[in-house]
Design a protein that fits this description.
This protein is 50% helix and 13% strand. It is an alpha/beta fold.
């Protein structure tokens, strides 16, 4: 694995900042020895941050970032400035490029204050030094350079190299978990998604860190893991596996052997693993809380539905007895509303005969559950409630006995079936 194969996250990020036309892009090109950035006398040539991963001696693998000018104008310019300032969060070493003729601007001073606030190592490069006749005293952060003549460009690189040693991280991917001479088994499944002829970057980095620790790495696929462990004289100090086969690998690796994954190693390497674990635990708590709240909401929703159904059931069950005399008086136009007359008795008999179809319809009641299971219980619950309501509405608004009989048949059919409501609610899909 060459230096140019180093992942960007593991490279030193060097950001070049400054005003428009201070010569940032020219200085970037001079430092890198490449035409990395477009150079022009027109202000604002660099409109977006330009990143380039490269090997830069004596620094090694780095990411060079050329940013837009901090004095860009207009609404679009403000967005570019915000983007340039966000780059500071990704920067390990900052280079503030100042036009030596113009001197430090207010924006430059603000940026230096920001560097200090974030405790970010920085260098103030006074560019175009070849155009000034007198050089003022500058502090330890400053250096006079000329991108045009190459003056002090190497000195700037040396200063960057010195900063690089100070900012170098002592974090290791896996070495801090190993004793010299340890054996580590790396489980690297090769499937259709794996790149041809090589292993992926995280596996390369772990393998390199194992070797740098003077340990032995044994690589195999998950299908050969059992045979590999059996071939070792002693159990390995650690087994590292790809996350996609973690479940099957965990069944093979003895409990006495530490087991982790490439993903976990890099989560620890690039972040705070303990904090990530705490975050995952909090998310689990939130998931349980959300489930609890969902159950509470579902309970109250179900309670409201059952209450409405119960009220409708009570109304439909009692309306026949309560309203029957009034309906007969109205439908058969019996004077004086007297239930003791012979005329009222005849009307009751006619009503009883007229509702015989209701009892014929109830013959299909035993098929109710079968039909509900086949076509959907929720649909039948809806039809059942709608049928009762429609029957009651027809009975209440009937202008003659015949229309009333239709409503009575509907109500009489759906009311017994309402006993199936609890069944429907308990088992509705």
């Amino acid at each position: 694995m060459s230096l140019n194969d180093t992942a960007s996250a593991d490279r030193l990020h060097i950001g070049f900042f400054g005003m428009r036309n201070a010569g940032k892009s020219s200085l970037v090109n001079a430092v890198t020895g490449q035409e990395l950035s477009v150079v022009s006398d027109v202000k604002g040539t660099t409109t977006d941050p330009v990143k380039k991963a490269m090997e830069l001696l004596p620094l090694g693998p780095v990411v060079i970032i050329d940013t837009p000018g901090l004095d860009d104008e207009g609404e679009l310019g403000e967005k570019r400035i915000k983007k340039a300032r966000r780059i500071i969060e990704q920067t390990d070493i900052a280079v503030l490029v100042v036009d030596a003729e113009a001197g430090m601007s207010r924006q430059d001073e603000e940026l230096v204050a920001l560097f200090n606030e974030k405790k970010l190592p920085y260098i103030v490069a006074f560019n175009k030094a070849d155009l000034i006749s007198e050089r003022k005293n500058i502090d330890e952060h400053g250096i006079f350079v000329s991108a045009a003549t190459g003056e002090n460009v190497n000195a700037l690189k040396d200063r960057l190299g010195a900063f690089a040693k100070l900012t170098a991280s002592d974090r290791r991917v896996i070495a801090d978990k190993l004793a010299p001479g340890s054996v580590v088994v790396l489980v690297m499944p090769i499937d259709e998604a794996a790149p041809k002829g090589r292993v992926i970057m995280p596996q390369q980095q772990v393998l390199r860190d194992v070797l740098d620790s003077h340990c032995t790495a044994v690589c195999c696929q998950d299908t050969e893991l059992a045979a590999t462990l059996a071939a070792l004289k002693e159990p390995p100090a650690l087994v590292v596996t790809d996350s996609q086969v973690f479940g099957s690998v965990s069944k093979i690796v003895p409990e006495s052997v530490m087991l982790t994954s490439f993903s976990i190693l890099f989560a620890r390497y690039r972040g705070d693993l303990a904090e990530l674990v705490r975050g995952a635990a909090e998310l689990k708590k939130l998931e349980k809380l959300q489930m609890k709240q969902t159950l509470i909401h579902s309970f109250w929703f179900l309670l409201v539905i059952l209450t409405v159904i119960y009220i409708a059931d009570e109304i439909s069950s009692n309306i026949n007895g309560v309203m029957k005399p009034y309906m007969i008086f109205d439908l058969f136009r019996i004077p004086n509303a007297d239930t003791t007359t012979a005329e009222y008795g005849s009307a009751v008999s006619v009503m009883a005969i007229a509702t015989i179809p209701t009892y014929i319809l109830t013959a299909v009641n035993p098929l109710y559950r079968t039909l509900a299971d086949r076509f959907g219980r929720k649909i039948f619950l809806f039809i059942n409630t709608l049928g009762m309501g429609l029957g009651m509405l027809i009975c209440m608004t009937a202008a003659n006995p015949y229309i009333f009989i239709v409503g009575s048949c509907l109500t009489g059919f759906f009311t017994p079936n309402d006993m199936q409501v609890i069944y429907l609610m308990e088992t509705a899909p």
